[in-house]
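Running this now, will post back.
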Amino acid sequence: MEVDDPADGTANRHAKPLDSKSDTGISDTPPVYSQFSTRYDSETAAIWCWMQPKPRPCMNTTLIEELTLSQQRLTAFYQSQQSGFIWPFHYLILASKIPGIYNLGGDLELFYQCIIDRDEEKLRKYAYSCVKLLHRNIDNLDLPITLISLVQGQALGGGFEIALSCDVIIAERSAVLGFPEILFNLFPGMGAYNLLTRRIGSALAERLILSGKTWPATELYEMGVIDVLAEDGQGMQAVENYLKSHNQSHNTIRAIKKIRRMVQPVTKKELYDIVDIWVESAMLLDKKDLSKMQRLLTLQKHQKDSSLIQENSKIKIPRRGEWRKIKDVSFPLVTHFGEVVPQNRRKKDSRRRD
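Update: finished.
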């Protein structure tokens, strides 16, 4: 994994991946990550991981594989150090390099194609890989570290689950998070229920999941889902402030996390069992459900650089009927799917008269 060297602050391009035959078990050839980049901050003993998935800002297969590899390499590198030397690495921060977007969730194009092709095993393999990634986050990579997610912008579906898999969620005030899966008759199946329940209880967790809405960070902070609320544009500074203020109590925090895992365990088997239910439910979706999934996929494809809603968007959005029942609407209008209706498509009153 390419990170700044903890000793001299320069990029360590000789960090070694797992597939090596060297004495440390790590190869001399660094892997090339295409979906994220990393930076090591020696002052706070933290590694920043900046996600930038392509071609859509979602949890695609390549991003999952690369993040999993980076997890394995960090664990191997840390555990293979010589006796008496401890690499100063206390925090791993998951953030996004895409303005206005943390992550828009699961790979809906893959979901759709698997369901159309009745390829249940491919869909399950994808979901299992997500669960494996999240569970290693939950277990802190089997290292004495703390995982932090910095949410700037939108975190939807699987993107929200990634944030929840971290010990601490820091979000900017304008961030929005939610689970839209119910809009196409499905549910978030990669840890959402378990992780939300651990934070806010099952009743409130179900309320968030079944609402299908996106929740502002301010509300989620009040509920206890988000740990630190930062002003817009101050997310990175809020993370650094958190790290500096908690470095002195790192040992206590680590102990509390161990207790949490004992009292509220989230096992890999439990997550796999939920995935099996999710896959079974996904394969039962009908044409109407898949049509709604396609609408969300259209949005996912067009969100590459900022917010879901762009006032002057010229994207052709699939038609929805509900907004036409409302009088005196102002345009551009945003539907409950997050779709932009740039102008009134209803016929003029003069043309509608008999």
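DSSP finds twelve helices and 14 strands in the chain. More later if anyone needs it.
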